Amino acid sequence: MQGSYKPRASCKRAGCREPVYPHPVAEKDYLCEMHFYKRSENTARRIARKNKVCQRAGCKQSLGDSRNRKYCSDSCRFQGARLRNDDHTLRTTQHSYWKNAERLIKENPHGIGSLRAQEDIAGLINLYQCKARHQRSYSYYQLPLPSGKRRLKLVPLLKLDLCHLYPNSLGGENSARNIIIAPSFINKLVGNKVPVSERYLVLNGVRTYKKQPLTQSLYRYVVENNNENNIQAFFRSLGKLKTFTFNQVRAPDISNIPACLPFFTLLQGELLRLGMNNVVNRLKKMNEVFALEALDLEIIALCLFYCLLTGDKPGLIREVEMFSLIKDYTIGKKILRSEKHPDLIRKRWEKKTIRFVSRYFHYDITTKTKMTAFYNSFFTLPPLK
Q1: Does the N terminus or the C terminus of the chain have fewer Cβ atoms within 10 A?
Q2: What is the value of pTM for the model shown?
Q3: Alpha carbon of 278 to those of 42, 61, 308: distances in Å?
């Protein structure tokens, strides 16, 4: 009589009915041939990973407990991915000023060619810092999210833009000499019109012709095209950029508007930066004449911003430059001078601004209420009632 048949055990893996592989370890753990070799490969891979160390400079941790093939933790992965292991550089390149400057360069058809030199990047960031000081940002809580959490939102009180004299989309230079800080509404109203001025050449802006599209990040471009000393000097020149911490509400300050003349003050600063000192001196003289009419001065400033972005096509900057309280009368060879009455000049400029706003802004400001509504439209919160 032949011996009885003894069936072989099956693999213990779920859903597997293959017989146990005839190997001491496989028979001990009840594994078929496929699962036995698969586990052996995984074991060899884990042993090899334990012998590897993190690739971040200065870290000697084993990769045995990490699923990443290069770094032992997320912290090391973030630091290892940096082009430079410098916290100050990282904070600068993650700041909104840097990202906005990078956006301007990428939107320009000439890319990096729209910069005269690397220092123009610092110039763009300085302009964004200046804009932040003038726009008087405040913060408030948004509507609660479905989870119940509330988020703070930072909002500028004055709606301002970095406006290119020669349009950025047409290849205008991304430098301080081709950019002014002006109200967003006026910037959108002017659009991509190319200014043409024979009297004020500085208002024509600067156009670039060298095409060098920015196909990578601005940070990588700076690092790859400079040595270590130049990179350190460049980021050191930017200083520590101010950031807003989203931990408390910041109330808007509208108590002294328009008495503090926010647009008039901004206009004077931009004119000085463009080298139009004579116009600034005349504006100061006008400020003395209209000392009690702050709103009228603000409306004049808004009209002059439109003239700056259009190459003074309406001719208002020229009229300001010729502003005087003295009128000359020529009789033969004699020149007689007579003092103009300030009230007459005030009324004359009030009528001039009413016509200007009606023609170029398409807005009626013939009454105090309508003028106040027009002025409030340049703010996210109405400062006047």
Answers
A1: N
A2: 0.77
A3: 79, 67, 15
